[in-house]
Amino acid sequence: MGVLAQNREAVRRYVEETGLPFDILIDERRDVLRAYGVWHRIGLDAWNISRPAVCLVNQDGTIAYSFIADQQKEFPTQAELLRAIG
Hints:
By secondary structure, the chain is α+β, with helices and mostly antiparallel strands. It is 28% helix and 29% strand.
């Protein structure tokens, strides 16, 4: 599941255009982003946004893997994600 802190209508259009193969949780109030510690009020290029983040959550609710970027263009590699899943 992905979490997007954007307007519901914008997310709906994005999902329709891209055909995402997973569910999206719309977090307009940023409650989930705050709970996971990825929201920040002011960034270098925007305000009221989240850092790019990936969390793999086990079925029991524990976090098996997390990546929280320091910069907006930073993401884990595909190899790193596959190792975390495997």
